[in-house]
Structures are given as C-alpha cells and as structure tokens.
Amino acid sequence: MNFLILSQAGFNAGDILFQLLAFAFLLTIPAIIVILFFIFKRRNDRLKRVEETIDHLLLKMEEKNR
C-alpha cells in the first residue's frame, strides 16, 4: 500500500534504495578515514613503547657489561 502511494507521488522503490545506498556510501568514507587514523595512532604508540623497552634493556645490558 505504501509503495503504491509513493509511486503515485513520483517516487520509485528503486530510487529510494539508490538514495539510501548513496547516503550510506557517503557516510562510509569519513568513517574509514577516522578508523584508519586511530589504527595508525595506536600503532605509533605501541612502537614508542617497544622502543622505550628496548632502549631500557640495552642500557641495562651496557651497565652490566661494565
């Protein structure tokens, strides 16, 4: 019944579906950018922690060898 009313008003179910998919696609692009930003930020933080740990271990080994 609702589709009949919409088709009389000049809307088609295919048009509505296309508009919803296009809108979802437009929302997906910024979401992907934000997700990638957080992934790279987390990776950089993890790398910094590993570097600090390695530096600390190297310093201990140098002190031990003296």
Protein architecture, described:
It contains 2 helices and no strands. The chain has one domain. The protein is rod-shaped. 91% of the residues lie in helices and 0% in strands. It has helices spanning 2-8, 13-65. The longest helix has 53 residues, at 13-65. It is mainly α. The protein starts with a helix and ends with a helix.
Descriptive tags:
66 residues, mainly alpha, 2 helices, rod-shaped, membrane
What is the compact description of this entry?
The protein is 91% helix and 0% strand. It is mainly α.
What does the secondary structure layout of this molecule look like, with pairings?
Elements: H1 2-8, H2 13-65
Q: What is the number of domains?
A: 1
Radius of gyration: 28 Å
Number of strands: 0
The coarse overall form would be rod-shaped
Task: Return the structural class.
Answer: mainly alpha
Contiguous runs where pLDDT drops below 50 for at least 5 residues: none
Q: What can be said about the biggest beta sheet?
A: none
The first-to-last residue Cα distance is 87 Å
